[in-house]
Recover the amino acids of this structure.
């Protein structure tokens, strides 16, 4: 969603005044920083603005991602000044949100596989991994499925597979995982809400 | 949260206990400070450690970890002894006047019905007396010695200032100061609220700590009002949503109960789960349970769920009656070699689970592990962790790259139940895709294998409705969110006899509110509490960004969508007297105008309870319609009671002969060692986070800006203890418990001060839990090598906040 131009101008005005104060010194460094910030501010004005919500604690602060229209890449993330809870402000983690984008060199980009007894990861494609996982799930489930408990009651459950996570994915993803686990018959189902 | 973050500004007294809000919820803390700036609110911090929260509060009161019930029990005693409770509210809106059954008793730390061999209670005697019509008997004078009010008073009369001070280490002066200041909110025009976090849930008595506070809030009339409530500042971005959708062993989406083996038919299950009230003034909203449950089954199994097959009830797995299947139980079974495969999505249990040594050993016994995340972590790399020889580990491990939060569209629910929509800003790097898409792919492949090969009990897999992709075969998030909201599955006419309206809905239209769900299979609803997140015509209310604030209380009714039914403060009918007039006209949350409620979305449309014909009590989700001072739903007793942590400094509980919570499950195997009141481990220890890291650090340690601020594990040691041990600030030390040890930097501080407990000096130390061996290389390993495998008796939240350690120079 594109934020209102009014809200955006409010924010860029605040950025500008801060820069003006910091550029009063004789040292050229602040001047260069000022120029960088101006360039960024200009870039932000022409960028696509996309609203999102912070991915750390559960306060639900709003953020604005600035996306370069040419490359489709995010180049700046900051607090959403129109958001009623955070009113543009962010904590240290939220302020560093940009470091979760692909600019972070540690992001996982490929499917990784570690074979039994191996001491390293190998790169795989999605189809191979998904088919192998489905095979393991089915074989484990079929072998360990419990139709009746020790009292002879019908229980239809699979105790040999566990499912953990996650409270840091979206609601729709949570719901899918919740019903997937039940369709498989799993009972060891848990996540961060308990820990 | 019963309330929401902005509402903290409406409070007059804010008790922060079990939370370090300034460091862990800095933006929430902004609203706490606003209460101080705008209302002159008093801010009180009760916590073992002096933190930046303490620094910004009016004062800080240190208490020994694990003694919160004693502290709060003393407050209940103070309120009742000094008549500080809000009489009108207590009489009309709580079960204070109900009569407790004559076979119920409490003696020396135990309630009636305890079986020491099973460490469980039979709750048969925890009952309320009913009259000939089946309605609870009441004594509106509150003088009957068997009424809840008198029983409560008697129970907490044991929590004297002397006793509480001796248990908690808080001086009597400090106790009285907090009690007096907080209980002054027990009047019409004052609001007191409580903010807690993991500092309350991470105890063997965690649920009862929160219940003790709920009792205080009911006594003071602080529930259902602006600036009141009991408010969990939760720690993960969508932990409210993940809880609502119940990726938890005991519940199905919308807090519906997971079936157990003895309930072998849908009829038996629904009868057991659907409460009945004979009191015409109790809304008893859960009488609608069958509508929510059958609609859920219709969402899960689609057309395959029919009346004839019990809507697929038999396809759901059944738990054994009374058994639990939590994270700790999972790792116990894994350690025994009985769990072969594990999905670990967006989580790092090799750092975050208690008793890390056991957890990592357990992982080695898996045949396969599937990880889904945006960064690698210690769980996915367990096979090359410290002391592990990869050549000895048979586990096949898959690490699937996932999209980060801003690289996908979907909704996220904050602690205040605001369900906010996020948009996709950019593609994820490389081959990464959303977790939702990974889930769809894997399950689709499993379905295809069962379709092709058959297998054991294939019905639930083959019949699972699983059509959540778009024309290109990609994850279609709107299809899922609409399925969660629910649909009319046939043309339907809804008649409202009171309003004399008749509304027609077509097959396929979205259900605009959970009041329109049906138990006959004519509606679907993936999670009943989310019915209404869309309008019938398809407006996605989670996307709303309206900033109007008609009450001036910061409810922002047109910003996002709050469940249930966009209600911003739950139990809000209790903010008015029995005639529907607001107790505090200056913070008017709701008002009955004679024919309707005006303000927040009310807890049901019925008139206030003074209307004996049509009016309802305010706590509509409770069977009896009233706030429960007597709460028989709890595992360890209807009234809270102080017990020591599993590991503590005392060999005897100063209040009774029951040292620890009698209802906690004791995990027994060679790696579950415990050392309580043991001179080898003389210091109380607690764990916590910091502003710059998040949870296990599995996301934040990979971010160099944040890592530079908080680079490695440390233990905070009070300067008196450090002097005694000859430990200097900044030197390396070892912290040891009965289960393991960690090496870290000593941070000698005045923030921990020694306590005087039962006449003896007791020191407490603390460590953050944000580090693991994988990255950074020299940052220290998991603090949870120290913590025990034990949890709350109701929830199995592990006891990370109180256990015993030793500290020595490395």
């Amino acid at each position: 969603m594109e934020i209102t131009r009014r809200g955006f101008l409010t924010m860029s005005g605040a950025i500008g005044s801060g820069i003006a104060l910091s550029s009063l010194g004789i040292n050229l460094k602040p001047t260069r920083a000022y120029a960088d910030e101006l360039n960024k501010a200009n870039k932000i004005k022409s960028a696509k603005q996309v609203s999102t919500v912070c991915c750390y604690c559960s306060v639900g602060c709003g953020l604005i991602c600035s996306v370069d229209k040419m490359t489709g890449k995010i180049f700046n993330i900051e607090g959403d000044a129109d958001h009623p809870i955070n009113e543009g402000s962010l904590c240290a983690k939220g302020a560093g949100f940009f470091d979760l984008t692909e600019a972070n060199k540690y992001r996982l980009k490929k499917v990784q596989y570690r074979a039994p007894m191996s001491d390293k990861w190998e790169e795989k494609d999605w189809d191979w991994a998904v088919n192998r996982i489905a095979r393991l799930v089915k074989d484990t489930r079929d072998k360990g499925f419990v139709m009746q408990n020790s009292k002879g009651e019908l229980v239809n459950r699979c105790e040999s597979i566990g499912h953990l996570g996650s409270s840091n994915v979206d609601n729709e993803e949570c719901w899918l995982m919740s019903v997937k686990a039940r369709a498989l018959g799993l009972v060891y189902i848990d996540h961060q809400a308990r820990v | 949260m019963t309330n929401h973050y902005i509402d903290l500004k409406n409070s007059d007294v804010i008790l922060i206990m079990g939370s370090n809000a300034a460091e862990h919820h800095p933006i929430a803390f902004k609203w706490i400070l606003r209460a101080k700036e705008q209302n002159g609110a008093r801010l009180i911090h009760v916590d073992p450690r002096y933190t930046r929260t303490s620094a910004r509060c009016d004062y800080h009161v240190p208490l020994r970890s694990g003694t919160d019930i004693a502290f709060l029990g003393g407050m209940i005693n103070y309120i009742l002894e000094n008549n500080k409770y809000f009489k009108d509210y207590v009489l009309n809106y709580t079960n204070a006047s109900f009569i407790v059954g004559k076979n119920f008793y409490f003696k020396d730390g135990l309630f009636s019905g305890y079986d020491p061999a099973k460490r469980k209670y039979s709750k048969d005697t925890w009952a309320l007396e009913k009259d000939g019509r089946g309605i609870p008997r009441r004594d509106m004078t509150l003088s009957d010695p068997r009424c809840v009010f008198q029983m409560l008073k008697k129970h907490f009369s044991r929590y004297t200032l002397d006793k509480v001070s001796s248990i908690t280490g808080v001086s009597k002066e400090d106790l009285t100061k907090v009690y007096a200041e907080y209980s002054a909110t027990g009047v019409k025009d004052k609001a007191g609220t409580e903010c807690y976090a993991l500092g309350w849930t991470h105890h063997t008595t965690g649920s009862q700590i929160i219940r003790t506070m709920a009792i205080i809030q009911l006594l003071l009339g602080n529930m259902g009002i602006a600036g009141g409530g009991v408010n969990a500042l939760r720690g993960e971005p969508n932990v409210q949503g993940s809880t609502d959708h119940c990726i938890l062993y005991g519940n199905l989406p919308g807090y519906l109960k997971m079936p157990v083996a003895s309930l072998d038919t849908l009829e038996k299950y629904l009868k057991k789960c659907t409460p009945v009230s004979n009191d015409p003034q109790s809304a008893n909203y859960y009488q609608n349970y069958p509508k929510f449950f059958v609609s859920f089954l219709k969402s899960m199994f689609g057309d395959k769920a029919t009346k004839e097959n019990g809507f697929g009830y038999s396809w759901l797995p059944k738990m054994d009656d009374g058994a639990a299947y939590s994270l700790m139980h999972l790792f116990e079974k894994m350690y025994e070699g009985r769990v072969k495969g594990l999905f670990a999505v967006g989580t790092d249990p090799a750092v975050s689970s208690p008793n890390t040594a056991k957890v990592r050993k357990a992982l080695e016994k898996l045949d396969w592990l599937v990880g889904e995340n945006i960064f690698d972590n210690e769980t996915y790399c367990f096979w090359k962790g410290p002391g592990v020889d990869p050549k000895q580990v048979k586990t096949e491990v898959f690490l699937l790259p996932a999209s980060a939060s801003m690289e996908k569209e979907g909704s996220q629910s904050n602690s205040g139940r605001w369900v906010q929509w996020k948009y996709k800003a950019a593609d994820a790097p490389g081959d990464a895709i959303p977790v939702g898409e990974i889930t769809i792919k894997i399950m689709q492949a499993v379905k295809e294998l069962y379709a092709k090969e058959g297998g054991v009990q294939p019905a639930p897999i083959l019949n699972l409705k699983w059509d959540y992709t778009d024309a290109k075969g990609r994850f279609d998030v709107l299809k899922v969110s609409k399925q969660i909201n629910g649909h009319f599955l046939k043309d339907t006419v809804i008649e409202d006899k009171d309003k004399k309206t008749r509304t027609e809905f077509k097959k396929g239209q979205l259900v605009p509110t959970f009041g329109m769900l049906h138990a006959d299979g004519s509606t679907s609803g993936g999670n009943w509490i989310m019915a209404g997140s869309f309008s019938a015509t398809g407006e996605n209310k989670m996307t709303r960004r309206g900033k109007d604030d008609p009450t001036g209380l910061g409810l922002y009714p047109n910003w996002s969508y709050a469940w249930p039914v966009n209600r911003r403060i739950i139990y809000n009918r209790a903010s008015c007297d029995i005639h529907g007039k607001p107790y505090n006209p200056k913070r008017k949350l709701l008002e009955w105008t004679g024919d309707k409620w005006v303000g927040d979305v009310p807890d049901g449309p019925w008139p206030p309870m003074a209307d004996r014909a049509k009016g309802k009590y305010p706590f509509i989700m409770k069977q009896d319609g009233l706030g429960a001072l007597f709460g028989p739903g709890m595992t360890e007793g209807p009234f809270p009671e102080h017990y020591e942590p599993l590991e503590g400094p005392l060999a005897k509980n100063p209040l009774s002969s029951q040292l620890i919570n009698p209802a906690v499950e004791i995990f027994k195997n060679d790696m579950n060692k415990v050392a309580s009141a043991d001179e080898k481990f003389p210091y109380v220890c607690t764990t916590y986070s910091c502003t710059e890291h998040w949870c296990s650090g599995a996301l934040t340690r990979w971010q160099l800006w944040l890592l530079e601020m908080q680079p490695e594990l440390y233990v905070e040691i009070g300067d008196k203890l450090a002097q005694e041990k000859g430990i200097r600030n900044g030197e390396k030390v070892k912290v040891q418990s009965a289960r393991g040890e960690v090496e870290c930097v000593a941070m000698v501080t005045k923030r921990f001060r020694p306590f005087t407990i039962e006449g003896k000096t007791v020191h407490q130390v603390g460590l953050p839990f944000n580090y693991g061996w994988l990255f950074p290389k020299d940052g220290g390993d998991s603090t949870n090598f120290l913590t025990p495998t034990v949890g709350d008796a109701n929830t199995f939240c592990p006891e990370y906040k109180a256990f015993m350690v030793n500290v020595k120079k490395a």
User: Anything to note?
Assistant: Chain A touches chain B through 116 residues (CB under 8 Å). Chain A is about 40% helix and 25% strand. The two ends of chain A are 34 Å apart (CA to CA).
